[in-house]
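seq as requested:
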Amino acid sequence: MKIALVVHDLHDHGGHSLYTKILADELSRRHSVTVFANRCERPIDARWSSHYVRAWRGSALACVQTFPLGLRSQSAALDSFDIRHTQGYCGGKPNIVTAHICVAAYLESLRSVSLRHRLSLRLQAAAEARFYRHYEGQVIAISDKVASELREFYKVRGPINVISHGVDVKRFKSVNREAARKGVRHKLGIQEDQTMALYVGDLTKAHAYLKELAEAAPDVQFGIVTYSRAYRWNRSNVHILPPTSHLERYYAAADAFVFPTTYDAFGMVLLEAMASGLAVFSSDCAGAAELIDSGRDGFVTPLDEWVEATAVGLRDRALLRRVGNRAEQTAYQHDWLSVVKAVEQLYLGITAA
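struct tokens:
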């Protein structure tokens, strides 16, 4: 098959960019793969090729809005591909789309956000709605949550294939604990007999609940890895940490993972934490929470009950170890190779038709 993967940016730092890179790396072992992107971090030894797509980088919204215009100049090249797979709304004429988010649903979940940011999201949601209104090809949703949102907000009536994100089971595993745990804890000043809970992500969607939890569980040390500049605060049991390419070291240092998100279409960090052998405490607003059997291999709680329930759970270290062991087993059922195989089967169905 000749496969075109279309994405605004391609890198291995997470989200839909990582998803696309994994597809490109694995599918290019058996097929001809070309990535169409505005920014592309292509390894020297990659088997796939890349095409540059023009877009204005003034802001995230500017890139989203101008990328389809740049893609028009690639229309002749794209027509020669059996598979034209875009990551959300990218323009062009795809025959398969992966919905990594429903912007309209995300916008509705926000409470305190700037007027400028809200306007930007409204414009993105309008563009998505127009696209799905006319689109007749295959749709992949990364969670049942996103599939339901596409039907509710964009009135998608055709079949939606739910294929969740995966996890790198070679990188994220509990055996890392022996190699990295002591070093990270020593750097942060956390003793081995202290419980450490980790959060990774955007503080916009979690800061209020994390602050409440830090106050409700003063004996627990919290590591918060975030790129967010706003919503930070100072407290003796809170350690705000910068993003890192060695995130597995922080999972190894922790005893639990806390994720009180107000909206996440999936939440790859939940699966990463589970694969690392951590008990996860998630809100029910994350798509990846669908993979958790609450009380057995993790905990899923409504946001209005999350702080109290999580504070109680963090006090029981035996419970954390037991649930963490089961979480690792569950995560290993969702490796990236399984995701690639499921996507490839959809491609084969498209070409056969």
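Residues 145 and 287 are 6 Å apart (CA to CA).
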